Protein 1
Amino acid sequence: MERLQKVIANSGLCSRRKAEELILNGKVKVNGKIITELGVKVNIQDEIFVNGKLLPQKETKEYYLLYKPEKTISSVQDEKKRKTVVDLVPSKVRLYPVGRLDYDTTGLLLLTNDGQLTNILTHPKHNIEKIYKAKVKGIVTKEDIFKLKKGVIIENRKVEISYLKIKKINYENKNTTLYVGIVEGRNHIVKKLLASLNHEVLELKRERYAFLTLDGLKKGEYRPLTIKEVKKLYSLK
């Protein structure tokens, strides 16, 4: 149970003070009864009308971490009717992916209906690190590593590497598996970065987003974020 003026203000309709004025002026009804006192408390089942209009309920915020499989679109819908990441996380609220992963890229993707948090996580100034595991054609050389650490110019802008580690070099099949960390979110940026060194990306997976990992999840699985995780994401601002 919450005070009526607080519920009205939380809906985004007006400020708390304005809500109190509306109540005192007889402009608010609860379950068909005009309310003129400020001490009244209501719950989520009550029908609240303000100036003759039903008060919209404030949408519950939801937060999910998805292990995105390949062949899924990082979008709410797709004109080609391909499966989207939203299809994988059933919810009564309208979820949106935070940023995007390519159609054939797998790994960690966040989905939420919290626009404020989405803006924090996607704004370039907050420098949120994403770590990718990439399997590329060819042998990554010491010269390649030097260039990556120094920073590579892509589309007239330098891409700074926050983390770099060679996991495996397969000399027989002539490919290399490595971890690359970046803090920016330009489209296809990891693929473009490695392609600039003549290494075509064969497989790409986002393994980490800030402090979040895929631990305990298989492809296509998801889990809700904890309150502690959501607060920690907000603290990245």
Note: Residues 11 and 63 are 20 Å apart (CA to CA).
Protein 2
Amino acid sequence: MFDSLISINDLSTDEIKKLFALAADLKARPQDFRNVLEGRMFGFIFEKPSTRTWVSFQAGIFAMGGGVIYLGPEDIQLGVREEVRDVARVLNRYLAGVVMRTFSHWTITEFRDYFDKPVINGLSDKEHPCQALADYMTLYEKIPAEKDPVLAFVGDGNNVLHSLILVAAKLGAKIRYATPKKYQPDAKIVRTAREIAKKTGAVIEGFFDPARAVAGADAIYTDVWVSMGEEAMRKKKLKDFQGMQVNRELVAKARKNVLIMHCLPAHRGEEITDSVMESKNCIVFDETENRLHIQKAVLLHLFNEGAIQ
């Protein structure tokens, strides 16, 4: 059983399915889990600003009886004021576990190597595992897994896409992605996912043309083109991503009543139009809510003696 969540690869297929079931239980009966984290104090080590990750994790921990200490970039300065390994060994004496939101994935893996308790990746440049789990939980709420929905991702080959590809591979799902040639997902992650897919029956297809990716898709997913830390690249990326916008014309190439997904924040008018964001088939805010429930499920397993065994 997993003892930290750094990557989707930390999870087995069975564990992902059990997390979905536990998250659904937490969503339906939150009052039954009010004291499961009582007496536990968690650290939030965030190098980046946050809305959903911070609020959803903190709300989830408080709802289950735990406490939180927030350590922002000005407070801790990982690797600048102190080495990551030294901070990890200090906080190991104080905290039950940590949630980390960092620029570099290395920072999280280095911290985990010197911290004896659970570490949860709240976002890194390589993966966004909690987001992808919430996304697939939401997709399967709308279209049951046995109907084998096709998810099409259009945009940057980034951390969110990496985690989505790995979840799809583990679940035997169908995922297509369309990215500009210069912004394809990490080749190693794609190879890993395709190796997993050989065992699970997942279908993972990559395109440069978004129309091919969304053709017949049940859900279309996009993310911002310019992520935090890439502001200096903004003008170039907006030019490079021309033709990748999720708009009415692109949506019309998918299945009728195709679901619209986004991890937020959305830059309306760039990667997605306002009319698509406000359409009746947009499930973005359902995804947002399910961040809370899937993260509570992860926490409950990690800190309550293996709740999903």
Note: The beta strands are 41-46, 67-71, 97-101, 119-123, 150-154, 174-178, 203-207, 219-222, 259-262.
